[in-house]
Amino acid sequence: MVSLKQNDREAMASGRIAPSPCPGCNAIVIRGPSAVLGGLETRRMVALGYAWILAVGVQRRRRPRSKQALERRHDAQLARFADSADIAASRRSFRIDGTIVIRGRRAEGTLRLNERAAPTASIRRMAAADRLLLLVDLDGVVYRGADPVPGVAAVLTARANAGDDVVYVTNNSMHYRADYVTRLTDLGAPVAADRVVSAPRATALYLRERHPEVRRVLAVGASGLDRELRDVGLEVVNAGFAAERMAREGIDGVGAAGAPDAVVAGVDPQLTYLRIAAAADCVRAGARFLATNRDPVYPTERWLRPGAGSVVAAIEVASGVTPLTIGKPEPLLMEEAAHATGRDPREAYVIGDGIVTDLAAANAVGARTILMLTGVTTGAALEALPSADKPFAVAADATELAQVLEGLRPA
Length: 411
Ligand SMILES: [Mg+2]
What we know:
By secondary structure, the chain is an alpha/beta fold. It folds into 3 domains: about 60 residues, no CATH class; about 60 residues, no CATH class; about 280 residues, Rossmann fold, CATH 3.40.50. The chain contains 15 helices and 22 strands. The strands form 6 sheets. It has a 6-stranded parallel sheet, sandwiched between helices. Strands 14-13-15-16-19 form a 5-stranded parallel sheet, with helices on both faces. Helix 14 links the parallel strand 21 and strand 22. Helix 6 packs parallel to helix 7, helix 6 crosses helix 12 and helix 8 crosses helix 10. The longest helix has 19 residues. It starts with 5 loop residues before the first helix and ends with a helix. The structure holds magnesium ion. Magnesium ion (MG) binds next to loops. The site of magnesium ion has 8 residues, from loops.
């Protein structure tokens, strides 16, 4: 794959040239008698792919080609570079002075070909400050119920291609991440499973990271909640199972659930009296009590239906214990979403449609809000906000969202 001259290989093998770390980034640069190699030290394939390009640069010095042939060759080389580096190249340019610039999602590189001197190259990891961190609410922003919000998926795709971090945040407590991946992919939005942080996912991450002593959890909720909790290694007992045991064996909720360390509650469409009893028994016995969120209701196609807050309230009243709430407007969902990209939530722009949820949660973590008027918030409600509480920016539709985001790019 790497067409180095024999003396370069021998030089490297004999240690006459050695990798030298690039200060301030994860790149390595190897300089030899007839080639310069550069790559990201953490990505072997990146290094090899890049080395291949540079070695071709050396060949060009010996066998000049026409400009058109060279451009075609460089296009093919850069495509291979992008593939091998696992970066979706969003911008590339070839200049007649022999410099090729490529900018991808996580890095940008420059290769300078020179007829007289050895080619030089550099790869620079894009600093986090060069990339926007976008925490994007779903319902009312990307879609409204069953319908997409026109143009938003395309705006997010453009931002992801430019290198921005896009993470979806939702209070919905019933679905598993794969459900969102399927739906967002169908809409044309950029998505990966680790970039969907729902209230159940954030709850699971919170328990794993901050309460490793919690091993067994009683889950009062839908199957999506169970799966998210299991995905982080927790042993999950569904409240439906515990309730059946209570009824069948005449035992209390603690015995039926196997003395869980925590109780997590979200929307439970099959909620029963005994499920509430099982959860309350465990909380009274000392289990940690968490709520995915406390939305009192959630909209369906035709009606409002009781939300997680209604389920949580029943357990709270029955146990006398107030839970820790993960979802919006509390800060933990936003914190976990930012941490999914390894970043600080204070760097985030929250794109949401709710004043009492998205805007409040963003304020709670020190993030800025781009309030969309595509969902529950009306212009009148926005006007009524005290100036100190107004969002960072407002967008009426996808076009205005794109304009706001474009203005945030570093010069
Ligand atoms: Mg919303």
